[in-house]
Amino acid sequence: MYRRCGRSLLVLAISILLVPLAGCWSSNEIEDLALSTGLAMDKGQPAPVEKELEGKGSTYAKRNRVMVTIQVAPIKSKGNQGKDQSGKQSAYMNVSGSGDSIFEIFRQFSIRLDRPVIGHHLKVVVISVDLLRKQSIEQITDFLLRDNNIRPSTLVYLSDGPARETLISKMPGEVPSFHIAGMHRNQSRTSKVLDPVTLTKLDSLTHSRKSFVLQTLVTGGGEIQLSGAGIINGSTGRFIGSLNQEDTESLNWLIGGGDAGPIKAYDRNGQPITYELLSMKSKITPRTEGEQISFKVGIETEGRLIETWDEQAHPTTNEYAEELEEQFEEKLQEKMQNLLRKLQTKYKTDVAGFGQRLAIEKPAVWRKVKDDWDRTFSRSQVTITCKVKITDFGSFTEK
Amino acid sequence: MLSSVIDYIPGWNVWTQAILAFLIPILASKIYKKMYAITGKGKKPDTADSKKAETLLEPSGAPFSGDYEADIQVIRDRIGGNSDLIFREIRMEKTNVRAALFYVAGMHNDRVLDLHLMEFLMFEAGSDTINEPGRIRDRLPFSCLLEASDLNSFNRSVMFGHIGLMIEGELGGLLIEYPNGANRSVQEPLSEALLRGPRLGFTEVLSENTSMLRRQGFSDQLEIKTQKVGTRLRKDLALAYIKDIVNPDLLEEVSARIGKMDFDFIAESGYVEQLIEDNYLSPFQQVQNTERPDRAIAALLEGRIAILLDGTPFVLIVPSTFSMLLQSPEDYYERWLPGSLLRMLRFLAAFLALMAPALYISFISFHPGLIPTELAMSIIETRQGVPFPSLIEVLILEVSIEILREAGIRLPKPVGPAMGIVGGLIIGDAAVQAGIVSPFLVIVVAVTAISSFSIPIYSAGLSLRLLRFVGMLFAAFLGMYGTILFFLLLCSHLTKLKSFGVPYLTPVSPFRLRDWKDLFFRAPLALMKRRPAMTKTQDDKRKS
């Protein structure tokens, strides 16, 4: 009895010992990892550090087609305990490398960094338009979409200049990728900010082979600005041109994405008058007459007069409101026409969803034209009617 | 064709895994069964042996001889060696008969003894009272008067605190008055304090405890049955139940298990609990203990049985289920909305007390992607100086908190809170400053500790404290996967566990919708018209 008991105890002890033998499976302490919070892609050329390293013969077989910069945050700081000095040093570190496989470049970073990079916390991907002129967006985002760790909620932006410069900030303690990731919150303040495009959305956009726009970033003076949008051609996946801030705003109104921001016009006396949007509705109605496709766009907006520099005006009467409404309508019409001219004649692409409306309302027609939609769109006639309604004049005192 | 079939036959490593996956559970259950069999649950083997023990225990010792001198001599020989035994021989004036009093010092109020008892015996008791054989019991004016059957039981009773009286010419000894040793006054229950509700707590005296139960309300159905337990030092144990509610099968089972207890001394009701529980290997208590008469009587009305033991204020309630561990009488005393809120809060607290450190470890060491980015950044910044992996870090702090709690119980009352502050605040802060642990962990451990304090039953908190460490190990080995595995193991254990035939997880599994009224939230009293289904009571209506 005693021996049997002892043996079963032995078996028990051995089976318990098996557990710690396995160790801490795939355990990785969080402080021993580097979070990549931002990713920038530029056209291929060796990064400065890389150039020096390559000069010493440290390189591998590659073609420089893309330069990838990752932002690692937070960086190791020894003086972490001293509370007064934290915040003065920069909170991030950018690492660049070039090559022709994004994954390989990532792994190449691993022979330069002291901590493995993980992609879970990637917030933004910034792609320079120069790179997108050469490579299609599908090629360069393929890895990002395949990787299991990178979240599909990562935001995608374009950059007018070198993308790696958008990941540099002068503000101490600020991580630029968080700054960029947070910028779309201003959608409630201006329509110049488009709905952010996430990786999942990008995936569907590229695979549907439709043209689309991505918001563009511009750097200057150590600051970052959202400046218009870049048009990506659906069939080639390449960058074909950009819309400026105002066109982007108009586009946002046209696709029903924005309902904030000002419309500024000049009144009879040449003084600026500003209208604040409170709501914005747009409706695209396709019409077909034989082969000819035309669109009717109705834009309705309500808002208030928020600012006027005209001291002579008596801004309480209905007549005055109607007069202003007319002026704003004119302005809005002008902005829309500008946008459409650019889309139809300059870039010859539909990024405002005209095709989608047609596909919904007249699927039979759409099936015929969809293969060559961008060209068909550029030939079709678009009429725009704008309706501005001033609901109030804000709070002010009668003189 | 055949080759394509062969292609699908897995390789040796898959086979090994399959065999392991098959064998390990079998092995584990074998080991479990063996360990379970080792103790035999503290029960006596049935019938024949137990009768032997019974005889051993109560030798039908020497009967009284009837000869006063001889009997006195026997008694003095047997127990006269005790220095606290007081022997007083008196002569009864009216009848001129000798009598002897035996009692143990300190068990009685001496003034009462001197004034009433001695006076009566020496000067008042007359020949009409004594000398009529067999009538002496009726004639003596004591409310509590017992007759000892033999010398041995007479001796034992005297030593336990009765006053023994031997009268010349009488066959047998008389036992007067119950023992009245040093007692504590009735106090507020220390381990189950409430803001609203009776402040009364059980004491160490069985008769007081049963009377407290009785005083909860008029009823002739509350039955209390007393029996002696312990083989060497015998003690009173009482079963209390409500006759027309309790399930007779349950009552039978409880009495049977108590009858099978074989231990020389039952020091506290914890002994009873451990000797009658269903599964001694389970980390969960299958018997609830309480200091509160109101909780005990409420349990009786749900068809449960209370086990009261002399010498302890802790009363056992059987059968008990998991949901009872997180219930507090206050849930019922307050209105149902706050009662429900507090109860759900307690479920959350129990979950945190069990899982918070395990979750911390799995997030920090395995799944950095599941932490919000900003938090991940600040954790990285604060943990940069910490030299240990998260398991060691958590263990350091958890163990010191546990030591602190343990120390807090031993400390004298005025020092206790100061110690808590010194331990909790200063050690925590200093450990962070010294870079041994991260500040985030201090929050986790503090939340865990606070959560475990909010569990209304102390021993349930102990189970969770124990399991917390197991959970931490699981998390350290396998991360979130291990944590979930641990939770599933717990769940599967709990579903298998039974307390006196009642499944431990009762309203959840087996599913009894009727009892969900009183699980995560407490339904308004007007809706709780029936007793819980789990106890299978004789009369399940709470409304007439």
UniProtKB/TrEMBL annotation, chain A:
GO cellular component, one term: membrane
Alphabetic keyword roster: Coiled coil, Germination, Lipoprotein, Membrane, Palmitate, Signal
A Pfam family of this chain: Spore_GerAC
GO process annotations (BP): spore germination
Organism for this UniProt entry: Paenibacillus soyae
Name of the molecule in the record: Ger(X)C family spore germination protein
Gene3D superfamilies, per the entry: Nutrient germinant receptor protein C, domain 3
Organism taxonomic ancestry: Bacteria, Bacillati, Bacillota, Bacilli, Bacillales
Record carries keyword Coiled coil: yes
TrEMBL record, chain B:
InterPro entries: Spore_Ger, UPF0353/GerABKA_families
GO biological process: spore germination
Membrane-crossing residue ranges in chain numbering: 12-32, 345-366, 440-459, 466-490
Keywords for this protein: Membrane, Transmembrane, Transmembrane helix
Superkingdom of source: Bacteria
GO cellular component: membrane
PANTHER family recorded: LEUCINE ZIPPER PROTEIN 4, SPORE GERMINATION PROTEIN
Family stated for the protein in its record: Belongs to the GerABKA family.
The protein's name: Spore germination protein
Species of provenance: Paenibacillus soyae
